[in-house]
Amino acid sequence: MFSWRKTKLQAVSIHQCRLSSLFRGVLVDAIGVSGTQSQASSQHGLASKTVLPIARNHSVLLFKLRTSARFDVWSIDRAEAFSTISGSILLQARDPAKLNEEIQIAVDQHRCDEAWRLFEQHMQMEGFPRKSVVNNVLVCFAESLDSSWLQKGYTLVEQAFEESKQNLLEKEPLLYLSLALAKSGMAVPASTILRKLVETEEYPHVSAWSAVLAHMSLAGSGSYLSAELVLEIGYLFHNNRVDPRKKSNAPLLAMKPNTLALNIALAGCLLFGTTRKAEELLDMIPKIGVKADANLLVIMAHIYERNGRREELRKLQRHIDEACNLNDSQFWQFYNCLLMCHLKFGDLESASKMVLEMLRRGKVARNSLGAAILGFDTADDDRLNLRKGSEVEESDNKETRTFSTHSMIPYEEFFRDRKFLKLEAEAKDVLGALLAKLHVQVELITTERGVLQPTEEIYVKLAKAFLESGKMKELAEFLLKAEHEDSPVSSDESMLVNVINACISLGMLDQAHDLLDEMRMAGVRTGASVYSSLLKAYCKTNRTREVTSLLRDAQKAGIQFDSSCYEALIQSQVIQNDTHGALNVFKEMKEAKIPRGGNQQFEKLLKGCEGNAEAGLMSKLLREIREGQSLDAGVHDWNNVIHFFSKKGLMQDAEKALKRMRSLGHSPNAQTFHSMVTGYAAIGSKYTEVTELWGEMKSIAAATSSMRFDQELLDAVLYTFVRGGFFSRANEVVEMMEKGNMFVDKYKYRMLFLKYHKTAYKGKAPKVQSESQLRKREAGLIFKKWLGLS
């Protein structure tokens, strides 16, 4: 209840004198002052009752600005600007305690609009209501899962922190609001609330913030923020810096990231392609002492494969082979990653050996009822433990996921569950959904009766790699061995014939002829269709010498060409003005009594592939060669070298490796520069070197398509420039990221700016400054404005 003593009124009058003339004029109009001293004194009581709450709490305008869309009170006519305020002032002569009760009743009845209207009135009268009411309003908004109410709730939280009234906010309602925001796809405010809780040492339990993390990770920007959060929270626990023996550290230790939180963040990074950020999380694991489970082992394999860390995959293989709790899906995901990595590095020998070993084991399993668990022990090759998986998949993989983004657990249950077991179960469900999406991406390996088997995709990728490297003999040997180990088919339907047909259709006639020779020398007979299609292709391109050679090979193999081949030969001779040769071919055709009509098998096959009538091996190979990107294995090798030196802080060696990489003709890519930039950032004070790299990146990106700026690279560059105060360059990076619709974690950069440049660019500019100083100041102010700190 207000006190209306004379001293209070004098204080109000003094405060009024300090207000701007604009605001003073409006207040006088609102009170109804007539201009005479006697009328003013007669209405003195009404003036005190209406003006006092506003004078005592100057946060009313701030509240209205923050909760109204695009409300700029200073940009409109002053009479209009304060007419609403003057009207509302007359309504404020109410009992605040009564208003608190009314707000609570509206909250209990889940009438968010009424609660908000009353809350606004209280903010105009007294500022924030009492603590319990504020928190109940936040809970009411969170339970609604309505984006507009959630935004208003978050706005209240922001204002409370800005006015240093965070003591009004309790941890549980804030966590509940953060979860609701995450479920509604509002990852930035959800993560900001978690960060504020950590800053104020109201440490959230790991099971609670893991659930928030899980729902954030279902979207691209949210997954990136999830990784940042785990890195920030995990940093507090590096190298056992928190003593577990102290009871006072118990709340902090309860927040420590666990395997579930890491799995969620890593799976989100994998699904949305930020695998270098994921590798930062992997580097943190030994520093905070988190134990790996089966899911984490498989996720690590995916990350190493995406980033081309073949040696790390080989080290991981021992743990995979020894793990006893991996199911079939996890097991074949790992070997899919290993196989993909062999292909990335151009190690076709290791890849083909893996495929042949799978086929051998599969053949044994098919022929022997007792071969349920198979192992193999090779001395020099990659050890592939092909074993029978469990008969039944884990129950969480078989059952349908039950988590929902459209409903909230009631707050009473949330509050009573002190260990957040329900939220932990929900986080596990979301993780299961994320891992299921990863499982869908496995395309090179499948299982039959618990034994790993290659899919058609691996034959396509291997065939393409062999063809690109010119290893025709090795390709033929591999495919013939694969045919021998796999189920036998007719020669015209074999994988090798499919590859030859694909080569012919792509105009790779020399490669097709070489493969045909390898088949013939291996004693494998094939039908006339392959020879016919190759002969026609040679005739079409007027390659007389190759036609003669192929005719000789066909005669040795006992192949009889059809009339269409003879017609193609005759037409080729006529085009070359060799009438005598054309007559000889026609005479030979008549003597052989070849019927007209010919064999149209290849033409039908080719039309089927072009129309995608059936996604067979040939059509997949055609698509892979036409659309797939050629891999430069040397780039992966040098990237690993540079990454190793950068991780160890040996930047001079990394620079030498980069120079050598360029001299050998390998073009650095985003991964190369990311390793260099993060290496310099770890050392510190290497901002000039990063600036030089930035210039090189832009020139390479302008000249070639091999260099593509991605979110992770630009984020690493931006961090370094902001840390060093290079704001002109930082503005360039921000512009590029916004142009590419990339997510930027403004909160992180706001904290970084306040940490290292808090006092910079404050006050008036110096009267005397050089042009470079002026440009630097302008760039700093632009960046500061972008952060929302100006």
UniProtKB/TrEMBL annotation:
It comes from the Eukaryota. This is At1g68980-like TPR repeats domain-containing protein. PANTHER family: BNAC05G43320D PROTEIN, OS10G0422566 PROTEIN. NCBIfam families: PPR (TIGR00756). PPR repeats lie at residues 492-526, 527-561, 634-668. Keywords: Repeat. Belongs to the PPR family. P subfamily. Residues 92-217 form the At1g68980-like TPR repeats domain.
